[in-house]
């Protein structure tokens, strides 16, 4: 099979060239305790525990080293937590009949501790449970590693960080580490994010803090730097001389689905744009980093964010789907956008004049996330084919993963006419049998390995909030009209009009159809 050499099981050994580690001699073996805080919640059962299971299944979490702790206020037993999680532990693709046995063995690694998020009592019990596990594994030698995953509402991050610092730090005399993984949304605007960063920053050093954005763990997002900097094709074309506009799109074909209360507090810009789409934009727009060291990459991302100019009101379209407020957890008069199109403009040598169009919406007519780079018209076109469409380079993040290039070719046949076609790298077809890891799986593994490349640095976060905070405040002050749209539609027509004004030229009559096997 062509793809036999590429799979997560055959990852290269641990890289040694990162310099963001907590200390120089960070052990990668020894007792590992993973604590999922908020273990009773939605993210924990749907994403965190399943990702840990897949890492366990693939041998990245070794039963003789690792123990997993769930922590939350809900009073449940170990068994109750295990049965809540059980149904979400689906077989890894290509898994054998040993799945059931693996699930049972994995579940036995999990222990539950109940306690509050702001008093020491619960965290002292947690520390005892971790220490007990560490003592029992001492015979295996090595140091202790403690990873705390915050699957929690951000409102409790400061108190939980303080409790960990006071009660649960690694105490091994043979080295080791304590790391925390924090979920988005990290703050609600610049001031609150900075306050949160300062509170956590007083307790933990930056190399101990992993701000997770799961889009950075997606296969095709991780492919961006390789595509851009390992291919001669793109190097001379990737600039304002050749590119007319870039779209970064997130669409979901379902609404807020039981998360209405959370969503209404944040809205689509904070939920998707300020983090996921902006991170993708950085990878599309950044300059080549000095090396692949996490700090070199993140330095370049920060420069992109700092070059974004203030967003203009006329380059924003906001919408809310009809029926959004039917959710009992959403106020009837909610003015939270569930759809947004926002144009960002970068003031730098490479991108001056190129609109970066960010689009995100819930309850639309399809589910997809993609980057669409549209090239300018061919000058002096002797085939008169502009009307058929421009060249586009599309990276479909999901689903299904694909990279394709829309281009004009001769229509096969006797006549000399042109037609739109594509060069297509559809992953399902090209990499048959290859398991593409879940984003969370990959990122949790990075946290254990101490690789911060795919995590958001504090200054990056600050620069991201600087871009959106003025707009968010204007929205909250009622300066924008929310356009209602029908669930299952493309969203407000005004968004397509904005795209057209920004110079996007749609290719009529052409649709890319993912190849089937
Ligand atoms: N769910 C998802 O798909 C995604 C979630 N996230 C982020 O992950 C984090 C966790 O999300 P999710 O699991 O959905 O959240 P939940 O609302 O399910 O909360 C997780 C747990 O936190 C505790 N909790 C809930 N509300 C409060 C509160 N007001 N004060 C103290 N504790 C509370 C509850 O545990 P108990 O009462 O037992 O202590 C709950 O089980 C959030 O930051 C979220 O934004 C990010 C991406 C996707
Ligand atoms: O962070 C979030 O992401 C999900 C979409 O993630 P995906 O990996 O399925 O694309 C989104 O549904 C949710 O609202 C948001 O909080």
TrEMBL record:
<protein>
    <recommendedName>
        <fullName>Glucose-6-phosphate 1-dehydrogenase</fullName>
        <ecNumber>1.1.1.49</ecNumber>
    </recommendedName>
</protein>
<feature type="domain" description="Glucose-6-phosphate dehydrogenase C-terminal">
    <location>
        <begin position="225"/>
        <end position="504"/>
    </location>
</feature>
<dbReference type="InterPro" id="IPR019796">
    <property type="entry name" value="G6P_DH_AS"/>
</dbReference>
<dbReference type="Pfam" id="PF02781">
    <property type="entry name" value="G6PD_C"/>
</dbReference>
<keyword id="KW-0963">Cytoplasm</keyword>
<dbReference type="InterPro" id="IPR022675">
    <property type="entry name" value="G6P_DH_C"/>
</dbReference>
<dbReference type="Pfam" id="PF00479">
    <property type="entry name" value="G6PD_N"/>
</dbReference>
<feature type="domain" description="Glucose-6-phosphate dehydrogenase NAD-binding">
    <location>
        <begin position="35"/>
        <end position="223"/>
    </location>
</feature>
<dbReference type="GO" id="GO:0004345">
    <property type="term" value="F:glucose-6-phosphate dehydrogenase activity"/>
</dbReference>
<dbReference type="GO" id="GO:0005737">
    <property type="term" value="C:cytoplasm"/>
</dbReference>
<dbReference type="InterPro" id="IPR001282">
    <property type="entry name" value="G6P_DH"/>
</dbReference>
<dbReference type="InterPro" id="IPR036291">
    <property type="entry name" value="NAD(P)-bd_dom_sf"/>
</dbReference>
<keyword id="KW-0521">NADP</keyword>
<comment type="function">
    <text>Catalyzes the rate-limiting step of the oxidative pentose-phosphate pathway, which represents a route for the dissimilation of carbohydrates besides glycolysis.</text>
</comment>
<dbReference type="GO" id="GO:0009051">
    <property type="term" value="P:pentose-phosphate shunt, oxidative branch"/>
</dbReference>
<dbReference type="InterPro" id="IPR022674">
    <property type="entry name" value="G6P_DH_NAD-bd"/>
</dbReference>
<comment type="pathway">
    <text>Carbohydrate degradation; pentose phosphate pathway; D-ribulose 5-phosphate from D-glucose 6-phosphate (oxidative stage): step 1/3.</text>
</comment>
<keyword id="KW-0119">Carbohydrate metabolism</keyword>
<dbReference type="GO" id="GO:0006006">
    <property type="term" value="P:glucose metabolic process"/>
</dbReference>
<comment type="similarity">
    <text>Belongs to the glucose-6-phosphate dehydrogenase family.</text>
</comment>
<keyword id="KW-0560">Oxidoreductase</keyword>
<keyword id="KW-0313">Glucose metabolism</keyword>
